[in-house]
Amino acid sequence: MKNLRKEFPALLHNTYLNTASSGLLYDSLLENRQEHDLDFLIGGSTFRNQQQDFLNGIRKTIAEFFGNSKDDTVLTPNFSLGFNTILNDLDKNNKVLLLEEDYPSINFAVTSKGFEVSYAKVGLNMEQNIETAIEKHKPDIFAFSLVQYINGIAIDLDFLISLKIKYPDLLIIADATQFCGTQVFDFKTSGIDILGCSGYKWLLGGYGNGFVLFNTGVLEHITPENYKNAAKNRHYDPSYTSLIARFECGHLDTFNFGSLQYSLDFLNKIGVSTIEKQINKLSAYTKEELSNLRLLDQNIKQRKQHSSIFNIKGDQKLFDYLMSQNIITSLRGSGIRISLHFYNTIEDIDKLLNTLHRYR
Predict the structure, then answer these.
(1) Could you tell me which residues come within 8 angstroms of residue 4 by beta carbon, excluding any fewer than 6 positions away?
(2) CA-CA-CA-CA torsion sign (265, 270, 274, 276)
(3) Where would one find the signal peptide in this protein (predicted)?
C-alpha cells in the first residue's frame, strides 16, 4: 500500500484524513483524463461516434464491480439527481421511513416532496430502532445512507437482508456514496432494491459521475404508467424513451464517466478485498486510540462494527490547528470528522494522535 501512495501527490505534503469529503486525484487517472481530452481535441465531432458503446462499457464495468446486471444499471451525474428522479414519480401517498440526521440529499429531498415521513434514531441500537419504526409506522419505503456521513455509523448489511425477507414489499433505497469502494459488496444478494452512489469519494472517480443500481424488475415497477404508455405510442429512438432514458437525459459526460470506469479498474487491480483489509485495520486502530483519548461518542465505542469515518470532539479552533499542521479533516455536526482510505497508514493516524496530544 505504501508504494501506491506515490500515485497521490496530495499525500506528499498533507496528512489527508478527508476522503469522506472528497477522494484524491491520482497520477495515472490524470494521464487518462488528458488522453481523453486529447482525443476530443483531435477528433472533434467524430469523437462522439463511439459514445454509446463507450457508455455501455462503463455500465458493464459498474455492474460487474457491484454484482448487478448492465441493463439494471443507470448512469447519473450524482446520487442526488438519480434519487430525485426516483422520488418525483413515486406516489406521494407513500409513507417513507428515514434516519434522523441523515444526509440532507436524502432527508430534505423526501420531506420537500410531501411524503408522509417517520424517523428511526441513529445510535447504538439503530437496527432495532429501524425495525421498531417499521412495525409502528408501516412505511412503504425505507431510504437511508449505508454509512452516516457525520459520525460513520454503518448499518449492519446482514440486517438489511433479514429486513427484506421479513418485509418483502418494503422498497429499500440506499445511498452508498460513503460506502462503495470500502469493501467487497454484492448488490444482488444485499436485500437492497435501489442503490445510488456518487463516484467522487471512496471510488476516486472525480466529480460529475455516479450510478443507480436497480434490482430485477424494480426499475419498471417505479416507472409511471403514463411514461410507459407514451414510450409505446411514439416512434422515438429508444435512447429517448427507454426506462433508463428517464435518468440519462441528454448527453452524458464521457470525461467524467470515463474517470469512474478508470478508477474502478484501478481499484480492481489493487483488489477490493485488499482495500477492505487495509481499511478495517486502520479503522480498528483508530477506534481504539481515539477511545483511549475519550474523543469518541459512547455509541460509536459500543457498536461492534464501524466504518472508517469518525467524529471526534473538537471545534473550529482545533480544526484550524490541525490544518496548520497539514492534517486535512472536516467540521461536521458538533465535532471534527476524520475518514480513512487505503492510501492512509498507521503513521497518518499516529501523527493525528500526537498532534492532539500537543494541542491538549
Answers:
(1) 270, 342, 343
(2) negative
(3) none
CA distance 258 to 212: 16
As a whole number, mean pLDDT of residues 252-278 equals 97
Rounded Cα distance between 22 and 305, Å, is 23
Answer yes or no: CATH 3.40.640.10 is held by domain 29-268: yes
For residue 203, CA distances in Å to 167, 176, 329 come to 31, 11, 19
Residues 6+ apart with CB under 8 A from 14: 326, 327, 328
Report pLDDT digits (tens) over 66-120.
999 999 999 999 999 999 999 998 999 999 999 999 999 999 999 999 999 999 9
Helix, strand or coil, per DSSP, at residue 359:
helix
Which candidate, 37, 51, 66, 342, places its Cα nearest to that of 204?
Answer: 342
- Please tell me the CATH code under which domain 3-17+271-359 is placed: 3.90.1150.10
Tell me the chain's radius of gyration from C-alpha atoms: 21
Classify residue 70 as exposed, middle or buried by CB count within 10 Å of its CB (0-12, 13-18, 19+).
middle
Instruction: Return the domain boundaries, the chain.
Output: 3-17+271-359, 29-268
- Cα–Cα distance, 131 to 124 (Å, whole number): 14
